[in-house]
Amino acid sequence: xxxxxxxxxAGFIGSCFVRQWLAEEEAGVVNxxxxxxxxxxDSLSAVANDPRYVFRQGDxxxxxxxxxxxxxxxxxxxxxxxxxxxxxxxxxxPADFMQTNIMGTFRLLEAALAYWRGxxxxxRSQFRFLHVSTDEVYxxxxxDGRFAETTSYAPSSPYSASKASSDHLxxxxxxxxxxxxxxxxxxxNYGPCQFPEKLIPLMILNALEGKPxxxxxxxxxxxxWLFVEDHCVAIRTVLDKGVPGQTYNVxxxxxxxxxxxxxxxxxxxxRLCSGLPHAPCRSLITFVTDRPGHDRRYxxxxxxxRQELGWAAACDFELGLERTVKWYIxxxxxxxxxxxxxxxxxxxxRVNPTEHNDAAA
Length: 361
Prior knowledge:
Blueprint (H helix, E strand, L loop, with lengths): L2 E5 L4 H13 L3 E6 L19 E5 L5 H11 L3 E4 L6 H6 L2 H23 L3 H6 L1 E7 L23 H20 L3 E6 L1 E3 L8 H11 L3 E4 L5 E6 H14 L5 E4 L4 E3 H15 L12 E4 L14 H7 L7 H14 L1 H7 L23
Parallel strand pairs: 1-2, 1-4, 2-3, 4-5, 5-6, 6-10, 7-9, 8-12
Antiparallel strand pairs: 9-11
Helix pairs in contact: 1-8, 2-4, 4-6, 7-9, 7-11, 9-11
C-alpha cells in the first residue's frame, strides 16, 4: 500500500495536490482523470517522469476500471477530487453534474468499499476515503456568521446540490458500512493552473488583453478565498490526522467582495505590466445582470481543523494573488492550450439566452 489513488488529478486542485504530494511525500500517486475540458496534463509536466507517478485516463463512474486500479496498485487512500465544479455550467447543463458528482461518487464508493473489505485487518485500519467538497453546499449567509461543520445544507445551484448529494452519500457509506471516510468542505480556491472560467483567472486574462471585466449584479457578493497550495496542505493534513467519519471545513479567513477581488487584480496587473495601452485596468470593469440563484455570502469557520489537526492557511491573499497573476503572465502557452477548445470566455449560466454574452464574476 505505497500509493494513493487521486481522482480528478489533472484538474486545478487535483494537479496541485499531485505535484505537492510527490514533492513532499514518499508514496506514489495513481491519477485517474477523465480529461474533460478542465483537465490538463500540462499542469503535471513537472511530475510526468517521476517513477512514482502513474496516470490513467478514465471515468470514476467506470466501476470495472476503478476496481482494476485498486486491485493493481493497492492504494492506502482514495482522494476524490473528480467533479464538475462550475456553477454557471451547472445552470446551462445540470445533467453532467448529476452524472459525475452523484453517480460517479456512488460508483467510486462502491468500488472502494469492496476493496476495503478485502484488505487485512491492519490495512483496513489504515485505509481512508477522502472526499473533497465545497462550502457552497451550505447555501447563502447573511452579513454575519460563518459556516461550521454542523451548518445545515441548503444548496442553491445544480452544482452545489450535486455536491451536497455526494457528501451525504459519503457519510452514509461510513455510517452504514463502516468505510473510513473523511470529508473536507473548502472555500473558493485560486492560484496557478486554474481554468479561466473561474473569477480570478478570467479577470486576470481579460485585464491583460484589455477585454471587459464583467461583474454580476452589484459586485458585493462575498466569498472566502484560499490559496490552492494551502488547500492541498489541508487535504494532506486531514488524510494524515483526520478522524474517520468527520468533516473538516477548510477556509482562508479571507472574505472579499467580487468587486474587491477584481479591483485587486486590476491593481496587480497595472503594477506588474506597466505600459498597457488600456491602463488603468479598472476602466474595463462593467456590471452585468446577476447570475440566477447567486448566493450572497460564504464564510468558513475553520476552527476544527485548526484546533484539532493544527492546520491554518499560510499564504495571505495579496501574496497569493501576485504569485497567481505572475504565473498567468509567464505561461501564455498553457493558457493558449487550455482555451483552444470550445470555451472562449463567454458568459455561461444564463437562464435568459438573450442576455449580454460575457463571462462574469
